[in-house]
Specification:
Length: 741
């Protein structure tokens, strides 16, 4: 791990502007949830005199680079944090290693604690979560215990379990502030019981010694309990546990029921004591089996199982249901295409999470070359899997609508990641932080590549002023018109033949005005000479140049100009208190999960494309709108959540980079890969987009560059981006369906 550069190092002895920038940037990006902090050098008060900016221009101060020190618990986590700031690497919020228990907050420790701790003061038990437990589970679970108690009393021999069920009926009706203990039997009492001999527990006599310990399982009452009482109660507790777990906030209730079924109901009834806690009461000697104060905790959204977020764990069974239902019920006897399409689309979300965590785990435990290869290979696998399967199905059916939906999804991903993702992060982060700053130079690399992909040059108009050193369009550069991936579209507008489906003469004059509908530019005129001789070579040329530009961007940011990030990693623990890395997923385990998730992703994408046809043909909503919303943004939901979490911790640089990197990969990797795929498997996909896609993409990129040009933002600028995104969605919603659909 590189050597730490803390506050004790002092400011850099550069120019006066450097010292001024170090003084004014006193906003510390806090990655507290990650156990990491962004530190910037502090300077004495004398260094931040008001005359600094009077002597140096504002542009020079804006272009200064601040050294940022990241602290991490171990080398693996430090490598993951460093990868977050590298261009082309997937940004990952969650830990890939187990955090030291002593470093966790008390709130997080409570999430993972067992329900067997008696507190000095538990507070009031009358809470909304406890009342919700009573309404959802408590009343019928208590009633079930009463019925089982009656059955056990009727068997006579199961009377001890009947008394236990009667006590547990009151406990599970309202378990809060009560405790169940396993009471130790005194040795003197055991000796006395051993001399008494046979006696009936039903009549109140002492319990035979042979009933304790191993003899408990040989009693007749235990046999009656295991046959008549325990199965029904275990099933009920299992139902409560699963339901409460899926609700996430009620996970304490799930733990309560799970522990009752697995431990409590299998103990001898005479060894259990149910009582209400009192503040002045001295706890009895014995093991605490259950002690619960709250049935709900709003912080359980942070809960993780083996490093996997609880929501991703809960959605994993949905993938299995989708695959079984999709391939077993292929004739749609049980469910319709709409439900199968929705399930397949929702299943993509947890699979995207597992793919992202696997990539982050492998990259954090490997060298730079391996991490770069894994990110480049699997970084866009989620979207590409769906697009390719859709194009294959459209080619087999001879339906051009699938290609148009793919273009809409590509445009929707680009527009959403440029407007919605950073906009939401600015708004939500701005609620906690009045003004947030980010590294405009690192963001400028993505901006420049987006301009290369979407914008070109025009002889009129001037771009807005930008700080020197910004990686986007320099000051005074010509404004953008569609180029890059939209170059073939522009070419078709200039040289293509306009063909209209229906025209009407509005003036009743043969030489008058005509009103035409369903017009498009035909590239196949004269046996396709224009397309095959001019447009298609241009498409292949663009598809080769854009990935080459992406590689140049990688080389620029990761090799020759790494100083624009200026990230340094240090150990946040004191010497002698270092923690070794305990990774959640080893490299081989992460690789196996990555491959399995990719395979399941392919199957879910196949099911989604298989059942999307009825939705496209029968829906009254424009296919444009379906593509730019549902198909584009649902796979990106895990990335959006990551960006919001970074923004809440005042690390807006990573929030912005998440959206920018996805948008860059759409233009420079995904679209060229789809074009090159058509060489080996001919499809209806051509790199000619509708005017709506071109204008929406170009306007989004220009607006994004304008917002990002000063390296700082607030919730108002984020609101502007979000509002523009929803305005574009409204345009797509009311737009007519594309031709061929």
């Amino acid at each position: 791990v590189p050597k730490a550069r803390g506050d004790s190092d002092g400011p850099r002895r550069g120019s006066l502007c450097d010292r001024h920038c170090a003084a004014i940037n006193n906003v510390h990006g806090d990655l507290g949830e990650l156990g990491c902090h962004l530190h910037r050098p502090r300077v004495p008060a004398a260094a931040s005199t008001p005359s600094c900016c009077q002597q140096h221009s504002e542009e020079a101060c804006e272009s200064c680079v601040l050294k940022t020190t990241l602290t991490a618990e171990n080398a693996v986590e430090a490598n993951k944090l460093s990868n977050n700031y590298k261009f082309g690497f997937k940004k990952w919020k969650s830990h890939v290693t187990a955090r030291p228990w002593e470093d966790r907050s008390e709130i997080v420790k409570e999430l993972y604690s067992d329900l067997n701790v008696i507190r000095a003061s538990g507070g009031s038990t009358l809470t909304c979560g406890n009342v919700l437990y009573l309404l959802l589970f408590g009343w019928w679970l208590s009633l079930l215990y009463v019925l089982v108690a009656a059955v056990m009393f009727l068997t006579v021999m199961g009377a001890p379990y009947g008394r236990l069920c009667w006590e547990l009926a009151g406990y599970f009706l309202w378990p809060f502030g009560k405790v169940i203990q396993k009471v130790e039997v005194p040795k003197s009492h055991q000796a006395c019981e051993a001399g008494v001999g046979e006696s009936s527990a039903l009549l109140g006599g002492p319990t035979p010694r042979r009933w304790l310990g191993a003899g408990h399982w040989r009693r007749a009452s235990t046999a009656a309990w295991l046959c008549l009482g325990y199965p029904l109660l275990a099933l009920a507790h299992g139902l409560v546990s699963v339901t409460a777990w899926l609700l996430v906030l009620l996970i304490p209730a799930a733990k309560l029921s799970a522990r009752a079924a697995a431990r409590l109901l299998l103990l001898p009834p005479e060894r259990l004591l149910v009582r209400r806690l009192r503040v002045t009461e001295v706890p009895l000697e014995g093991e605490v089996i259950l002690c619960c104060y709250r049935a709900a905790n709003p912080y359980y959204y942070k809960y993780a199982v083996d490093g996997i977020n609880v929501f991703a764990v809960n959605l994993l069974p949905l993938v299995l249901v989708t695959l079984v239902l999709g391939y077993v019920d292929s004739p749609n006897h049980l469910t319709g295409s709409a439900l199968k399409f929705s399930l397949a689309l929702l299943s993509i979300m947890p699979l995207s999470y597992y793919i992202g965590m696997a990539i982050a785990s492998i990259s954090a435990q490997s060298n730079f070359a391996v991490g770069a290869v894994v990110n480049a290979t699997f970084g866009s696998i989620t979207e590409l899997t769906f697009y390719i399967t859709a194009l294959i199905k459209g080619s087999r059916e001879g339906n051009r609508c699938y290609a148009e939906v793919v273009k809409s999804a590509l445009t929707g991903t680009l527009v959403g990641c440029v407007l919605l993702v950073p906009g939401l992060c600015m708004v939500i982060g701005g609620i906690r932080h009045q003004e947030q700053r980010f590294n405009s130079r690192s963001a400028g690399v993505s901006s420049a590549l987006l301009f290369l992909s979407v914008g070109g040059e025009l002889g009129t108009g001037v771009s807005p002023r930008r700080p020197p050193g910004f990686g986007g369009v320099p000051q005074g550069a010509p404004c953008a018109v569609p180029a890059g991936v939209f170059a073939p579209t522009l070419f078709s507008k200039v040289y293509g033949k306009l063909v209209c489906g229906e025209c009407h003469n509005v003036t009743q004059n043969p030489l008058g005005h005509y009103l035409c509908h369903n017009c498009h530019f035909d590239l196949m005129d004269n046996n396709g000479t224009l397309y095959y001789s001019h447009v298609q070579p241009l498409v292949y040329t663009v598809s080769i140049l854009l990935p080459a530009a992406y590689l140049v961007g990688l080389f620029f940011t990761l090799k020759t100009h790494t100083h624009i990030y200026d990230i340094h990693i240090s150990d946040c623990h004191m010497p002698g208190h270092h923690h070794s890395a305990v990774v959640h997923w080893s490299r081989w385990r992460a690789l196996l999960i990555l491959l399995l998730s990719t395979l399941c992703m392919s199957a879910c994408a196949d099911l989604a494309t298989e059942h999307i046809s009825p939705i496209l043909t029968n829906s009254t909503i424009s296919q444009y709108f379906i593509g730019v919303t549902v198909l584009a943004m649902v796979p990106e939901l895990p990335e959006i959540v990551n960006g919001i979490q970074f923004a809440l911790q005042n690390n807006l640089s990573l929030s912005i980079e998440i959206g920018n990197c996805i948008a860059v990969q759409v233009c420079m990797l995904q679209i060229p890969i789809l074009v090159l795929f058509t060489i080996f498997y001919p499809t209806n996909f051509t790199l000619v987009f509708s005017d709506l896609h071109v204008y929406a993409s170009m306007f989004s990129v220009v607006l994004m560059n304008y917002i990002f040009m000063d390296g700082k933002c607030d919730y108002f600028q984020g609101t502007v981006l979000v509002m523009v995104y929803f305005i574009l969605l409204a345009v797509y919603f009311f737009a007519p369906s594309p031709s061929g659909c």
